[in-house]
Homoserine dehydrogenase
Amino acid sequence: MAECKKIKAALLGLGTVGGGVYKLVQRQKEEMVKKSGANLEITRILVHNMNKQREGVDASLLTDNWKEIVEDPEISIVIEVMGGIEPAKTMILEALCAGKNVVTANKDLVAVHGRELLDAAQENQVDFLFEAAVAGGIPIIRPLKQCLAANEIDEVIGIVNGTTNYILTKMFEDGMDFSEALAKATELGYAEADPTADVEGLDAGRKVAILASIVFHSRVVFDDVYTEGITKISAKDVAYAKEFGSVIKLLGVAHNREDGIEVAVYPMMLPKNHPLASVRDSFNAVFVHGDALDDAMFYGRGAGELPTASAVMGDVIDIIRDIQFSCTGRISCTCYKNTPVKSSDDVKNKFFVRMQVTNKPGVLARIASMFGEHKVSISKVIQKVITDGVAELVIVTEAVKEYHMQDALMHLREMDTTQEISSVIREY
């Protein structure tokens, strides 16, 4: 029996995900030949600190010299799990130009420089795969690029940040306020010491840019994505959502309309009967609508050591198979269109507005008139709480262009009867 081919790989980074990848490679040693047709061997691991003790890792594999990897002709796969833009971008480009296949979990990099990296891969006829860059262990990039390639997809919406989903779940189910839920998320390791990228929607924005680029076959970058976080969501907003038969989720939303692509991240009130409404705690899910497929949802762990490593290794196994049949580079950039991305001002949404107003005759009529002047139609009005001459008013609108809504809110704030506009939340 002929000796099985050995594929050599280098790992860039040995943090949470890098450690998970190393573990999976060791765990799958016996199965790798049967699954991919070749043995996989990690021969180099690039680390920042050579003196740090790393239990369970062969110290002879460690290096802090990138040239040892990029100039080694025997290394055919580079697995980048360092994160950040630089030096990852430079290293990946150098690896691709050296004829090496690359797997990355780097959403920041793909969301901003994806076109450049995919072009370099295509030029050098190598694979550049990034399944782990969106929704951790959930298969979504490959299904969109391959399994659903026959569809015209017009909508992709997702819960793609586990930290914020955990926080909102605790607010909804356990009655916590935002700060209490965030503290719990930090204690459990879901939230970073600086949670800004999560709670302000930036992390989700990068992932939605990648998804929109793939499903609409047109380049969308992070700067195209309007982002709004969950820091202003209050217990009162959650109570109203329950009353309306809804939940509040931080959603990445992308639509392909006749006049262009709409792409944003913001908290939305979502009806309880929508499939995404049941996604709890730190789980992620992506909901897709296509002309042939109709509706589908991809659900699972969106982060973590082994779930993310699972996605990375899925890409690695794909590349090993491609190497066996000399067909690396067969699926590269699929952005063959040049569809414009609409300004967020031109996107239509329904709105939930909670405000404190002076409780006296004629106030509601003035507010309704102000909305009407700005082309905002009202579908529902609720007035419940009255204290010290101030009434809490909740107004739900019909779908309206964002800029009309923002103009109306600006003029409402200037009215002498408006004490405060407490919340403005979109409705799905």
Observations:
- Residues 9 and 77 are 5 Å apart (CA to CA).
- The first strand starts at residue 6 and ends at 12.
- The mean pLDDT is 95.
